[in-house]
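Let us work through a complete example step by step.
Step 1: write down the sequence.
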Amino acid sequence: MKNSRNNELADRRGAAAEAKAALLNAYRSAKEVAEPTRLAKQAERQAIAAAREERRAERERVKLEEQARAQAAEAERQAAAEAVARADVDAREAADKDRIARVIADEAARKAARDLRYANRKARKS
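Step 2: predict the structure and record it as tokens.
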């Protein structure tokens, strides 16, 4: 006979309560034993999270610097293009003014030559 003693309801309930208490005590002692390991793991996770955040901030800083550098290069390129366009417009305006000045000078020279011919003709008639 395996169970020779009489298992009454109260005996079974007491045994179950003792088993539960033993399990709870075992859990508490295991938790206390694992506490330093848990704290070490928690500290390690926090350190990893801080390092991850630091790397993210560094990437963000580098990205912002790169954007600023690209914007500066774009502004410089645009300023150079505007300077070239301005120089081109100024050259065209100078060429137009020079052409107009030559036309006016040629017209004045023709008028002077015509007046001279007219004066010579008048001088010959008189």
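Step 3: interpret the result. Helices lie at 9-125.
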